């Protein structure tokens, strides 16, 4: 089978991306046709590793990334001309003036490492250097497939770049060539980490719940996916939620004609499974939620391999 | 003149109840006759207006730098592309540079260094800011245009608006509440940076805990004062154990909110639970939990004021 790379996104956070991804990962690893690699691209708050721990804790590959650039100031070179402030070298408000010492101060968190100060300063009193932006962690899980995930260094400002770097890391793995299914747990939102996640994917699962904010946010996620022209299917989580919004929700689904991969009922077994840090399909295989997810997996396989994407 | 205290509600993990809590805190301040400014800084997915049941008005675009190459002036030297840190300008020898706007950080270095003055500063729409108003609540909402990446720039536009208001009319509001996106990236960081008090919202699961610890790390990096709220605290009976764990790590909390169907109902109807709508049971578990949290919040803010005075 040809390799397919898919991502699970939602717009809104906390609607079940990680729960679903973990179960799909487990089902994929038991499927004789599929050789998966699993990824967590929610680099701000990576959680999938809690459900997919390492087979051998001593065999975890961890690599620092330096995708962030930051400016530093070389005081000896500064002639105190204040041009950096007066000509507004920095568009990110990362330069301010220390009146006492008559030197610029760099706000480390605000600095985007664009290099404008370095290029524009006539005395070359600024330097740009890579700093640690996070880590990429990779190991063989107890469920067999490899997990690769990124984790940002807090305050490093480059979640999107770390996502891209993690994806490249996975592509450079020895087992990548043999794999035919790359499954990515995506970040919430629709900003740079999400865009970096969905870029280059073959298929997207958008998961949502039948609440006003759930629908509002998934619509925005779908808008992004459509801009990238990636085929997608919808999974409805907590599908039977007792809510006065259900009718409106159903109308939304019907009117759009989107491909619904499945509906997962509200099932406390999911919460219990998460509390035990296990995919629900393994923790309670006979539960209603598990049955729904198994159906979703079957449908997903059809979408990925029975048709030309 | 005294500026109002700024409280930022955040959480690391998605879906823990940040917006729910921001909206109900806003409502409780309003109930006391306070003038509140609520800013929705989750610009990737703004939802406060849905929870408040408010129609957004006064849509104004947030503009962002866009380089335009003036071919008549360009000498095709490539200096702009060579210096672009995000590779947003594609240049091949003897041809005009081509801007890739989605990669552009807006640093304007190309515009500033072009020896021929061949780059013009143009603007593109990055997102929008909206306003809404109800009783004593002013709402300011930022929205990132889908398929744009730079959410932090929309957040910056919101904060600029906030700071202008605080400069010009420091006493217009009694309190300002900021609601953030999930995660811990640049836009969240900006909103944490503005805060006098930070409330990270979590839930009693391993995931909630892990993400709480990460957001607290960031809060500490910014040297800010924080107290957590544990939402859905009655989930699966983990409350005591979870609160114990937080106590062991010296993470103080303002309180916890149990699972309560009325919260779901209020959420889906766009009426805040704490609104004096008469729709919800004021003796309900959720309602009472919010009251207690609000009391603790006021004590905490009072302490803060005392410390400020001492300083």
Write up what this structure looks like.
The complex is a heterodimer of chains A (309) and B (311). Chain A is an alpha/beta fold. Chain A has helices at 17-30, 48-51, 83-86, 116-120, 159-171, 192-198, 212-227, 246-256, 268-275, 280-283, 288-306, and strands at 4-9, 36-40, 61-65, 68-73, 95-98, 103-106, 126-131, 134-140, 146-152, 181-185, 203-208, 232-236, 260-263. In chain A, the strands form 3 sheets. Chain A has a 9-stranded mixed sheet with strand order 3-8-9-2-10-1-11-12-13, sandwiched between helices. In chain A, helix 5 packs parallel to helix 6. Chain A starts with a strand and ends with a helix. Chain B has 311 residues and is α/β, with parallel strands linked by helices. In chain B, 37% of the residues lie in helices and 23% in strands. Chain B is built from 10 helices and 12 strands. Chain B has helices spanning 18-31, 48-52, 79-83, 109-113, 151-168, 186-193, 206-221, 239-248, 261-269, 285-310; strands spanning 6-10, 36-40, 57-69, 89-90, 98-99, 119-134, 137-144, 175-179, 197-202, 225-226, 228-231, 253-257. In chain B, the strands form 2 sheets. In chain B, strands 1, 2, 3, 6, 7, 8, 9, 10, 11 and 12 form a 10-stranded mixed sheet that branches. In chain B, strands 4-5 form a two-stranded antiparallel ribbon. In chain B, helix 7 links the parallel strand 9 (197-202) and strand 10. In chain B, helix 5 (151-168) runs parallel beside helix 6 (186-193). The longest helix of chain B is centred in the C-terminal third of the chain and has 26 residues, at 285-310. Chains A and B meet through helix 4, helix 6, helix 7 and helix 9 of A and helix 4, helix 6, helix 7 and helix 9 of B.
């Amino acid at each position: 089978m040809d390799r397919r790379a898919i991502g699970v996104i939602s717009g809104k956070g906390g609607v079940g991306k990680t729960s679903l991804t973990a179960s799909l990962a487990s089902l994929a690893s038991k499927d004789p046709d599929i050789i998966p690699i699993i990824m967590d691209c929610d680099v701000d708050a990576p959680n999938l590793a809690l459900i997919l721990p390492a087979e051998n804790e001593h065999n975890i590959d961890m690599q620092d990334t330096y995708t962030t650039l930051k400016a530093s100031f070389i005081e000896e070179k500064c002639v105190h001309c204040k041009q950096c402030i007066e000509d507004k070298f920095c568009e990110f408000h990362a330069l301010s003036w220390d009146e006492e010492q008559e030197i610029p101060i760099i706000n480390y968190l605000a600095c985007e490492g664009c290099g404008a100060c370095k290029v524009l300063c006539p005395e070359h009193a600024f330097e740009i250097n890579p700093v640690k932006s996070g880590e990429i962690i990779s190991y063989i899980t107890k469920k067999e497939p490899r997990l690769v995930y990124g984790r940002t260094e807090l305050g490093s400002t480059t979640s999107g770049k770390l996502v891209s770097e993690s994806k490249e890391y996975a592509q450079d793995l020895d087992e990548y060539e043999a794999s035919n299914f790359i499954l990515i747990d995506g970040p919430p939102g629709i900003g740079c980490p999400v865009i970096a996640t969905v870029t280059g994917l073959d298929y997207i699962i958008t998961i949502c719940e039948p609440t006003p904010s759930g629908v509002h946010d998934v619509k925005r996620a779908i808008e992004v996916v459509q801009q990238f022209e990636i085929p997608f299917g919808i999974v409805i989580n907590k599908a039977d939620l007792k809510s006065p919004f259900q009718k409106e929700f159903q109308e939304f689904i019907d009117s759009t004609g989107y491909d619904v991969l499945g509906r997962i009922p509200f099932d406390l077994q999911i919460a219990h499974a998460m509390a035990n840090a296990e995919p629900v399909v393994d923790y309670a295989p006979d539960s209603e939620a598990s049955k729904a997810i198994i159906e979703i997996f079957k449908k997903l396989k059809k979408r990925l391999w029975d048709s030309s994407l | 003149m005294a500026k109002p205290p700024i409280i930022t509600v955040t959480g690391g993990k998605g879906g823990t109840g940040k917006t729910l809590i921001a909206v109900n805190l806003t409502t409780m301040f309003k109930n006391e006759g306070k003038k509140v400014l609520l800013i929705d800084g989750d610009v990737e997915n703004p939802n406060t207006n849905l929870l408040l049941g408010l129609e957004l008005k006064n849509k104004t675009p947030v503009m962002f730098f866009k380089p335009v190459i003036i071919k008549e002036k360009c000498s095709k030297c490539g200096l702009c592309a060579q210096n672009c840190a995000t590779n947003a300008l594609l240049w091949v020898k003897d041809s005009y540079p081509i801007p890739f706007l989605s990669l552009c950080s807006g640093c304007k270095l190309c515009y500033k260094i072009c020896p021929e003055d061949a780059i013009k500063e143009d603007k593109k729409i990055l997102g929008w800011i909206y306003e809404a108003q109800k009783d004593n609540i002013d709402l300011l909402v930022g929205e990132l245009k889908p398929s744009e990446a730079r959410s932090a720039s929309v957040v910056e536009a919101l904060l600029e608006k906030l700071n202008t208001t605080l400069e010009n009319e420091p006493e217009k509001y009694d309190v300002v509440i900021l609601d953030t996106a999930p995660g811990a990236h640049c836009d969240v960081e900006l909103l944490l940076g503005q805060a006098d008090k930070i409330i990270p919202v979590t839930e009693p699961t391993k995931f909630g805990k892990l993400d709480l610890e990460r957001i607290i790390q960031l809060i500490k990096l910014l040297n800010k004062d924080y107290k957590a709220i544990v939402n859905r605290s009655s989930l699966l009976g983990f409350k005591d154990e979870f609160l114990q764990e937080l106590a062991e790590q010296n993470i103080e909390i303002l309180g916890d909110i149990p699972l309560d169907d009325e919260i779901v109902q209020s959420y889906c109807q766009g009426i805040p639970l704490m609104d004096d709508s008469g729709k919800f049971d004021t003796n309900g578990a959720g309602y009472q939990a919010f009251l207690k949290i609000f009391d603790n919040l006021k004590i905490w803010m009072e302490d803060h004021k005392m410390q400020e005075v001492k300083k």
